[in-house]
Automatic annotation (TrEMBL):
Domain Sugar-binding, chain residue ranges per copy: 49-303
Recorded GO MF terms: carbohydrate binding; DNA binding; DNA-binding transcription factor activity
Residue ranges of domain RNA polymerase sigma-70 region in the record: 6-37
Protein name: Deoxyribonucleoside regulator
InterPro entries: NagB/RpiA_transferase-like (IPR037171), RNA_pol_sigma70_r4 (IPR007630), RNA_pol_sigma_r3/r4-like (IPR013324), SorC_transcr_regulators (IPR051054), Sugar-bd_dom_put (IPR007324)
Keyword terms of this UniProt record: DNA-binding, Transcription, Transcription regulation
Family: Belongs to the SorC transcriptional regulatory family.
GO terms under biological process: DNA-templated transcription initiation
Biological source species: Carnobacterium iners
């Protein structure tokens, strides 16, 4: 009985192969396997990952007072794998919630581009898609800003509203002059009117995307690394979710973070260990009411303490 059970459960032999090996019939093998389970020699444990996900969702929803939490199962904790699964879910979610008359505000970056690529075109009228922050840089680093908003717009059969400006100006006076232009003012106002906002968080690591686009000098990078934990739409915030550098913030072209608090759906899509501090700060700042996150990061986030605590 024990030998039959070992061959079947540990060595993946079929019941027919076991019967042939021992010179017994297949029904006899089946009876021996059942007897082994009845006696407790064989114990089968089924792990349901989705049961765990529901508990994580409830705990995060309570911790951060969120309207919705979606913990997405990822088979591995590698950032690329997590991003692939999060972006797939976010694309399917958007296809359901975007309806006639929706104004969708989108950010840009790798995660946003992956979501845009996975969208299935939906027949819907009256949708507007607007860029929530400036999308121009003179760096060779690919941001996919134009491709991202174009893919979102194509999926929902509309014309994109590009914010064709640098996301961070050198001088606040230049930014204020540009904001007076009625065309720019129109797009900025559309961003404020967006009923659904979709974004991720950036980090303040040395190789963070914004740090590679040539917007900051070394002194500004050092300031941000010291004061901030991350950014949303290129607006940097600290561990409490408050703007970390008012001078840089005043030169930033895009939606004010406070505006995100009043959206019908303010959706943060982010995962991976390196984004923990940024996700925590963003949620403490109440900039999202919907969170999409993987189970690895969700577990860590529930135990997350601010660095100085």
């Amino acid at each position: 009985m024990i030998e039959v059970a070992k061959l079947y459960y540990q060595s993946d032999y079929s019941q027919q192969e076991i019967g042939t090996k021992f010179g017994i019939s297949r029904p006899t093998v089946s009876r021996l396997l059942k007897r082994a389970k009845d006696k407790g020699y064989v114990q089968i444990k089924i792990v349901d990952p989705f049961f765990d996900l529901a508990h994580l969702e409830a705990a995060l929803k309570e911790k951060y007072s969120l309207a919705e939490v979606h913990v997405i199962f990822s088979p591995e904790s590698y950032y690329e794998t997590i991003t692939a699964h999060l972006s797939h879910f976010a694309a399917k979610y958007l296809e359901e919630v975007i309806v006639e008359g929706t104004i969708l505000g989108v950010s840009w970056g790798t995660t946003m581009y992956e979501i845009a690529r996975k969208l299935t075109p939906k027949k819907v009228s009256g949708v507007e898609v607007v860029q929530l922050k400036g999308g121009i840089s003179h760096s060779d680093v690919q941001t996919y800003a134009n491709e991202t908003i174009s893919l979102f717009s194509a999926a929902f059969q509309t014309t994109p509203l590009h914010l064709l400006l640098p996301v961070i100006f050198d001088h606040v006076t230049t930014k204020k002059l540009v904001e007076k232009d009625r065309h720019m003012r129109y797009i900025i106002e559309k961003g404020k009117q967006a009923t659904v906002a979709l974004f991720t968080v950036g980090t303040v690591r040395e190789n963070a995307l914004l740090f590679r686009l040539g917007y900051f000098d070394e002194n500004e990078k050092m300031r941000l690394k010291k004061q901030a934990v991350g950014d949303i739409c290129s607006r940097f915030f600290d561990a409490k979710g408050e703007i970390s550098d008012q001078e840089i913030n005043s030169r930033t072209m895009g939606i004010d973070l406070e505006e995100l608090r009043y959206k019908e759906k303010s959706i943060l899509v982010a995962g991976g260990h390196r984004k923990l501090a940024a996700i925590d700060g963003a949620l403490k700042g109440k900039y999202a009411n919907i969170l999409m996150i993987d189970q690895f990061t969700a577990k860590e986030l529930l135990k997350w303490n601010e660095p100085h605590e």
